[in-house]
Design brief:
Blueprint (H helix, E strand, L loop, with lengths): L30 E6 L5 H14 L3 E6 L9 H10 L2 E5 L3
Parallel strand pairs: 1-2, 1-3
């Protein structure tokens, strides 16, 4: 069995060891956060994904970073952690 390696995009010399998040067993009754990192056309992907999820009766909340070059502000990360069961981050160009 291969070992999973999580890469930290913040370019830390020695990223902290992190366990992968537990996957949801089902989207039924879940709230999914969609995080737009403010790169071009990421919103197009998230609009399509939101439509697909809401058609499956999944509650969707949208979030947006002010800029793709920095971490999401603490208040955005806090809202996601408090209100969402899962999050999908859009990376696009």
């Amino acid at each position: 069995m291969s070992e999973e390696v999580l890469l930290d995009p913040t370019n830390e010399a020695e990223p902290p060891l992190r366990e992968p998040a537990t996957r949801l067993g089902s989207l039924e009754g879940a709230t999914v956060g969609l995080l737009d990192i403010s790169k071009a056309r990421g919103d197009v992907f998230l609009d399509h994904l939101e439509s697909r999820l809401t058609n499956r009766q999944v509650e969707v909340l949208r979030f947006r970073k002010p800029t793709f070059s920095k971490l999401a502000p603490v208040d955005v990360r806090q809202q996601i952690s408090e209100r969402c069961d899962a999050v999908i981050e859009a990376l696009a160009d």
